From TrEMBL:
Record domain F-box: where: 6-52
InterPro entries from the UniProt entry: F-box-like_dom_sf (IPR036047), F-box_dom (IPR001810), PP2-like (IPR025886)
Originating species: Lolium multiflorum (Italian ryegrass)
Protein name: F-box domain-containing protein
Pfam families given in the database record: F-box-like (PF12937), PP2 (PF14299)
Length: 299
């Protein structure tokens, strides 16, 4: 038996419910479907999902949506938020944040500017155990970076790619190969530049951070022992960003965050370490996520 409140909601004009839901977020619209029959009908409206779908979606690679294309705007939103789609040339892929509708991107190692990097013989295959997207959506290779002359990795992003008025976090996804060393200290410097604003932070690729045993315990940081022992005394790491472990040996390190505004110029991302002996860095790519986005596997 329906409650008086539910009966009252059922009598609201559908146009009003559609308007109210369209002013919320995709996550709220998904939840609204379970409130009542009236809310379900309103939350399925093309008007609602037309508002949540970005009006400036990029051009996709050929055949990305041609097999069983979604028949509704909500279906298209689900398709683009459940699984990434490749852009032309298939070196960049996009996925919508299911909670906010923001456009999120992954830049493959092929798109990065890696100084002193030789393409010959320095690509390794990436298995589906790590990147479990459908085979046609995966980046199949990662770059083995041999950085005797200094580590210098850069990426550039055009602001029109991203959602406006959105805070993004950038992560580099990588792994340490056999006989890694020299990626602990000196620490690497990650920097962001956008519209004349620049931010910098120190990161340590040769280590990882894990949560404390209790909710109020501080995170624990660990520096990994490399193949070649080092005599350097590593300074305190309180202000240094450490990677978090993913699966099958892969890790991700937060490079920084930035907020997009109308009129912003090109966004530059870099990770630099001075010249000295180092080895074992394997780079898969850089992910740009909206700050509200929940990383895959943690929903």
């Amino acid at each position: 038996m329906e409650t008086p409140v539910a009966c009252w909601i059922e009598r609201l004009p559908e146009d009003l419910l559609v308007h109210v839901i369209s002013l919320t977020s995709p996550a709220d619209a998904f939840r609204a479907s379970a409130v009542s029959r009236a809310f379900h009908a309103a939350a399925e409206s093309e008007t609602v999902w037309s508002r949540f779908l970005p009006c400036d979606l990029p051009r996709f690679a050929k055949n990305e949506l041609t097999r069983k294309p979604p028949s509704t705007k909500k279906g298209l939103f689900r398709r683009l938020s459940d699984e990434p789609v490749l852009l032309p040339h298939k070196f960049v892929r996009m996925q919508l944040d299911k909670a906010t509708g923001a456009k999120c991107f992954t830049l493959s190692a092929s798109t990065l500017q890696i100084k002193h990097f030789s393409h010959a013989g320095n690509w390794i295959p990436v298995g589906s155990d790590f990147d479990n997207s459908k085979r046609g959506k995966r980046f199949l290779e990662a770059a083995r970076v041999r950085c005797w002359q200094g580590l210098d990795i850069r990426a550039k992003v055009q602001p029109k790619m991203l959602s406006q008025n959105t805070t993004y976090m950038a992560y580099m996804v990588f792994m340490l190969g056999d006989r890694f060393y020299g990626l602990d200290f000196p620490f690497q410097e990650a920097s962001f530049g956008v519209a004349g604003r620049e931010s910098r932070r120190q990161v340590c690729l040769q280590g990882y951070v894990e949560d404390g045993d209790a909710a109020d315990d501080p995170p624990r940081k660990h520096i990994l022992q490399g193949y070649q022992s080092r005599r350097d005394t590593i300074p305190p790491v309180d202000d240094v960003q450490f990677p978090r472990k993913k699966t099958h040996g892969w890790m991700e390190v937060e490079l920084g965050e930035f907020h997009t505004e109308e009129g912003d110029g090109e966004i530059s991302i870099s990770l630099i370490q001075p010249a000295h002996g180092k080895s074992g860095l394997i780079v898969w790519g850089i992910e740009l996520r909206s700050k509200q986005q929940i990383p895959a596997g943690q929903e």
